[in-house]
Write a structure and sequence with these properties.
Butyryl-CoA Dehydrogenase, subunit A, domain 2; Butyryl-CoA Dehydrogenase, subunit A, domain 3; 397 residues
C-alpha cells in the first residue's frame, strides 16, 4: 500500500521535520497494517514507543517539554505540532481507521494533563502515554450533553480530602481498552458550566462500571457509570471550575486533525475507485472509459485536494500563530474535509456497484468509518455556527 499524504503536494505548509516524518510513516505503516487492523488493544499498543519495534506515534501527542517528539517549542507545555498530527492521522486513516481513532483519543485523554496538570501528574502519566502502556480516554459526552457541553449532569462532591463522582458518560471512545480517563464533572452544579472540573481517574477505580456500546464501524466505544467513585484531590486536573475551558482547549487543539483523518479515508477511497474502474469491464470496455465515471473521479479528486488545502492551512496557522487560536479556520477545515470525504467515499461505493455494499468490502467499511467524523469533536452544524459567529464578529479574512 502506497500512502498519499498532504505533504506530497503542499510543501509550503510543511518543514523538513514533517518531511522526515512523512518518510518514516510511508516506510513503517504499510508493514504494520495487519497489526493495526487486528483488534483495538493490539492496535493501541502497536502505536506506542517501547523499543520493541512499535511505531512510536504517541510521542506526537505529548509536548516536547514533557517527553514528546522534538517538533519545536521545547519550553511550551501546551504545544503539540498540529502538522505532525495531520500527517500521522492522514496516514493511519488510510491503513486502519480504527487505529486512527484510538490514536486521536489517546491525545484527548492526555493533553489536558500536559497542558493543565501538576508536575506529579505529568511525571506519572505522560511517559506511560508515550510508551503506549497507558491508553487514555476523554470522558465528556453524556446522554443529555453532547454539543451542549455546559449541560452535563455528572457531579463531583467534596468528601473530606477527596472527591466523589456520580453520573453517566456515554459515547466515550476507548472504553474497554483505556487505563485512564480524563473525566469532566460539575463540582458546583448551581454555577452551571463555571463549576465543571476535570479529574484524572484510573479505569479500575472503585465505583466505575464500563459497558460497551456497539458502533457501526469497529471502534472501542462505551458507556461509563460513576457511582460513589472516590478520587483524591490530587486527581483534579487544573483549577476547580476550569474544566469547561480545559475541554474546549483540548478539542480546539485536536479538531483540525479530524479533517486530516477524513482526508486519509477519502484518499484511500479514491485509490480503490480508480483501481476498480480500470479493471472492471462493462459493455465491452473498462468503466474508466465512461464519461460519467470520469466525472465522478474528477469530483472526488477535487474534493480531496480542497479538503487537504483547508486542513494544511489551518494546521500551519495553528503552529505558527502566536497563541495558536485559529478557531474559524479549524472549523472550516473540519467541516469541509469531513463532508467532502463523505461525498468521495459515497461515489467510490457507487462506482463499485453491488460489490461496494457487500459487508467486508473495503469501500463499504470506509463508508461506515467516515460517518462518525461528521459528528464527533463538534458536528458540522456546530462548525457552521462557529464560522458564522467569527464572520459576524471580525468579517471575512
Amino acid at each position: 500500500m502506497l500512502l498519499s499524504l498532504s505533504s506530497d503536494k503542499l510543501g509550503p505548509f510543511f518543514g523538513d521535520g514533517h518531511r522526515a516524518l512523512r518518510a518514516r510513516l510511508a516506510e513503517a505503516l504499510p508493514n504494520a497494517a495487519r497489526g493495526l487492523g487486528h483488534d483495538a488493544l493490539t492496535a493501541a499498543r502497536e502505536m506506542g514507543a517501547r523499543g520493541d519495534g512499535t511505531l512510536g506515534l504517541y510521542a506526537y501527542l505529548v509536548p516536547e517539554r514533557h517527553g514528546g517528539a522534538a517538533v519545536g517549542r521545547p519550553d511550551d507545555e501546551r504545544y503539540v505540532d498540529v502538522r505532525s498530527l495531520l500527517l500521522v492521522r492522514e496516514a493511519l486513516a488510510q491503513v486502519s481507521p480504527m487505529a486512527d481513532s484510538i490514536f486521536a483519543v489517546q491525545g484527548l485523554g492526555s493533553w489536558p494533563v500536559s497542558a493543565f496538570g501538576t508536575d506529579a501528574q505529568r511525571a506519572r502519566l505522560l511517559p506511560l502515554v508515550v510508551s503506549g502502556r497507558s491508553i487514555g480516554a476523554f470522558a465528556l459526552t453524556e446522554p443529555e450533553a453532547g454539543s451542549d457541553v455546559g449541560g452535563l449532569k455528572t457531579v463531583a462532591r467534596r468528601d473530606g480530602d477527596g472527591w466523589v463522582l456520580d453520573g453517566e458518560k456515554h459515547l466515550i471512545s476507548n472504553v474497554g481498552i483505556a487505563e485512564h480517563y480524563v473525566v469532566f464533572a460539575n463540582a458546583d452544579p448551581a454555577a452551571g458550566r463555571k463549576g465543571i472540573t476535570a479529574f484524572l481517574v484510573p479505569a479500575d477505580a472503585p465505583g466505575i462500571t464500563a459497558e460497551a456500546m456497539p458502533l457501526s464501524s469497529p471502534h472501542p466505544l462505551g458507556r461509563l457509570r460513576f457511582s460513589g467513585c472516590r478520587v483524591p484531590d490530587d486527581a483534579r486536573v487544573g483549577e476547580i471550575g476550569k474544566g469547561f475551558s480545559i475541554a474546549l482547549e483540548t478539542l480546539d487543539a485536536f479538531r483540525i486533525s479530524v479533517g486530516a483523518a477524513a482526508n486519509g479515508m477519502a484518499a484511500r477511497a479514491l485509490v480503490l475507485a480508480i483501481a476498480h474502474v480500470k479493471a472492471r469491464r462493462q459493455f465491452g470496455a473498462p468503466l474508466a472509459e465512461q464519461q460519467q465515471v470520469q466525472a465522478y473521479l474528477a469530483d472526488m479528486a477535487t474534493d480531496l485536494e480542497a479538503g487537504r488545502l483547508l486542513v494544511a492551512r489551518a494546521a500551519y496557522l495553528r503552529d505558527t500563530t502566536p497563541g495558536g487560536r485559529v478557531t474559524a479556520e479549524a472549523a472550516m477545515a473540519k467541516m469541509f474535509a469531513t463532508e467532502a470525504a463523505q461525498r468521495v467515499i459515497d461515489k467510490a461505493v457507487q462506482l463499485h456497484g453491488g460489490s461496494g455494499v457487500l459487508l467486508g468490502s473495503e469501500v463499504e467499511a470506509l463508508y461506515r468509518d467516515i460517518r462518525p467524523l461528521r459528528i464527533y469533536e463538534g458536528t458540522t452544524e456546530i462548525q457552521r455556527l462557529v464560522i458564522a459567529r467569527a464572520l459576524l464578529k471580525d468579517g471575512p479574512a
